[in-house]
From TrEMBL:
It comes from the Eukaryota. Transmembrane segments: none annotated. Residues 1-98 are annotated as: Disordered. Keywords: Coiled coil. The gene is Noa1. This is NOA1 protein. GO terms for molecular function: GTP binding.
Length: 634
């Protein structure tokens, strides 16, 4: 097992943990009577990552009789019930509110607990009884509340066709301001070739008056730079994927690479939109589930692309690793990029680019260091036009403070905080940026996983590549979600795993591979799926596809074997060396051989060979900060 674990002391040596289970190959192919688990001690993951991984395998606490407690106020009881996963009570007699959830955009209702926008009936009535439907403004549905406060995703009945219906209906609206909308397609670069991208031309049918598509390659911060110019290569790969999907010529406005999470490339995207699209019409964010659309929407909301007053009025979209988070249309008004505003924005960008890291405030340094731990590419998203907030006014009532000695003090009822609203003049001619529901990826392994498993599979921080040198007759497991058998070849080859740092990689002999899977799938060794034999009874079996590759050199990978959305393995072999491989993924999920590979020189990002094993020590490249005059960060 090659898996990242916290190191016990500096430069600690490799620790071998012996377990029964048959022979295993380690390093040069030496066979031993016992299987060995190899733990990388020189790579120290983020403490939050390690804690999350350890928490998955803590023993279940035995139920104990709960001591008698005093009756709690209703609000505390409801919070305790929600934290325990108890669904709220529905009331089918109450009609829908007509008010959208400020987290996902779904219409708030209390009639159906399994439908989007559900609010428990008791909470719903308490919000409506005083102010009517206006009392629901700014409220979030139970699903968004659970995502934000507990990281839990409530199961909803929302078929893929419903996602497409909402998106198609939005794009088919008559053109506003005499011009069709610009489509901002958000593409997860880790998912190339994007399975939803070929559907975009169909969405742009004859009845859709779109003015073009600007493709945004997101999550570039998660991938290490395998060689100089890797961003240019990534951009070409995205452009090639667009051409294969039928997006070319005038239909494709541009291709941009960003990280909506760390801010890398976001200022450039805003400048590109303001320079070319200006404020000509509405903008729609499209993309597959979990591509980062909602994160991009939130980042644009606090940038110069949004009207200065909007962040105080519009709540940010719910962001969660669970696919299909956005259920309806959220929007914010786009600022009109006048010549004066463009000039002031450029002056701010020049001033910030001249700063060094030492000139940042302590809070800015703290946030920057946090982003450096999250990704390899970091950027700063600022605001040129900020609204001055009025000083708060203290509401003082002397009569409520005067009471006699035999009276109890009375507390005035808490006044409901008034929400700001846009004026008529602000929105009558506004152009809007819409966030649409994510289009569900079919044949995706994430559709088979529980919410806890999804959190382990989806990478949220910089990926540290793991490289192994394998000889024929060896098998590589990526958790229990993917398997690659090296069947035939004359020489050893290098296999570089690019996947979530929390997913284990296990190396064994081909003759022992089936036994390992049957014994450890659903358990700690392979980790995902989780739940033991009962979980594996309902999980699809692994099905295989034979792959033949011809090496092009020991420094450059010939292809990536993409194991659905679990990650991929880059294969590097000697020049002209033919390899016969057999790759496995769960039945009903995709397996793609990506040629050329996304990061062809990924095997160079490694440390020294670990003696007696097939593994190399891991190596994490430094982060790079754009638009900041810093030294020593690359």
């Amino acid at each position: 097992l090659a898996r990242a674990q916290p190191r016990a002391q500096p430069r600690a040596p490799l620790r071998r943990l012996r377990r029964a289970g048959g022979p295993a190959v380690a390093g040069g192919g030496q066979e031993e009577e016992e299987e060995e688990r190899f733990v990388f001690l020189e790579y120290e993951p983020d403490p939050a990552e390690a804690a999350a991984a350890a928490a998955q395998w803590e023993p279940e606490p035995q139920p104990q009789p709960e001591p008698r407690r005093e009756r709690q106020p209703g609000r505390e009881r409801r919070a305790r019930g929600a934290a325990a996963g108890i669904p709220g009570v529905a009331d089918p007699s109450v009609p829908p509110s007509g008010v959208s959830c400020s987290g996902c955009g779904a219409e708030l209702q209390c009639a159906d607990g399994a439908a989007p926008g559900f609010v428990p009936a008791e909470k719903y009535r308490s919000l409506v009884v005083s102010e009517g439907a206006a009392g629901l403004r700014g409220a979030v549905c139970q699903r968004c509340w659970a995502l934000a406060h507990h990281g839990r995703a409530l199961r909803l009945r929302l078929p893929p066709e419903e996602h497409r219906r909402v998106v198609s209906a939005a794009l088919s609206r008559p053109p506003r301001h005499g011009r069709g909308p610009l489509l901002l397609y958000v593409l997860d670069v880790l998912e190339l070739p994007d399975p939803v991208l070929p559907q975009v031309p169909a969405l742009l049918g004859p009845g859709v008056p779109a003015s073009g598509v600007l493709v945004v390659g997101n999550k570039v911060d998660l991938l290490p730079a395998d060689a100089p110019g890797h961003l240019g290569r990534l951009r070409r790969r995205v452009a090639e994927a667009c051409a294969r999907a039928g997006l070319a010529g005038s239909a494709l406005v541009d291709v941009r690479l960003v990280s909506a999470k760390t801010g890398f490339g976001m200022e450039g995207l805003v400048s590109r939109l303001q320079r070319s699209w200006k404020c000509a019409g509405d903008v729609y964010l499209l993309g597959a589930t979990n591509s980062g659309k909602s994160t991009l929407f939130n980042t644009l909301l606090r940038s110069d692309y949004c009207k200065s007053r909007a962040p105080d009025i519009i709540d940010r979209a719910t962001v969660s690793p669970w696919p299909g988070t956005t259920l309806n249309l959220l929007k914010f008004p786009i600022i009109n990029p006048t010549c004066d505003r463009i000039f002031r924005r450029q002056e701010r960008l020049k001033e910030e680019a001249a700063k060094t890291e030492d000139e940042l405030s302590s809070e800015e340094k703290k946030y920057l260091n946090h982003l450096k731990k999250q990704g390899y590419l970091v950027g700063k998203v600022g605001r040129t036009f900020q609204r001055q907030k009025a000083s708060p006014v203290v509401d003082f009532d002397p009569d409520m403070l005067s009471y006699s000695i035999d009276e109890d003090p009375k507390h005035s009822p808490k006044k409901r905080e008034e929400r700001e609203e846009f004026t008529h003049n602000e929105v009558k001619d506004a152009r809007w940026c819409f966030d649409t529901p994510g289009i569900v990826k079919e044949d995706c392994v994430l559709n088979l996983l529980t919410e806890m498993e999804v959190k382990l599979v989806l990478p949220t921080v910089a990926i540290v590549p793991r490289t192994f040198i394998l000889k024929p007759g060896t098998t590589l497991f990526l958790a229990a979600l993917g398997r690659i058998d090296y069947l035939q070849g004359e020489k050893s080859a290098w296999f570089s795993v690019v996947a979530s740092n929390l997913l284990p990689v296990h190396i064994t002999t081909l003759s022992n591979a089936d036994t390992i899977y049957e014994k450890h799938a659903g358990r700690e060794l392979l980790k995902v799926p989780m739940g033991g034999e009962e979980r594996m009874k309902e999980f699809p079996p692994l099905v295989h596809q034979d792959i033949t590759l011809k090496g092009i050199g020991t420094t450059e990978a010939v292809a990536d074997i993409k194991l659905s959305s679990a990650g991929w393995v880059a294969v590097t072999a000697h020049a002209e060396e033919e390899l016969l491989l057999r790759a496995y993924t769960p039945k009903g999920t995709s397996l793609v051989v990506r040629e050329p590979p996304l990061l062809p020189y990924i095997s160079s990002i490694r440390g020294s060979r670990i003696a007696g094993t097939a593994a190399y020590r891991t190596k994490k490249p430094p982060s790079f900060v754009e638009n900041l005059k810093t030294t020593g960060n690359r």
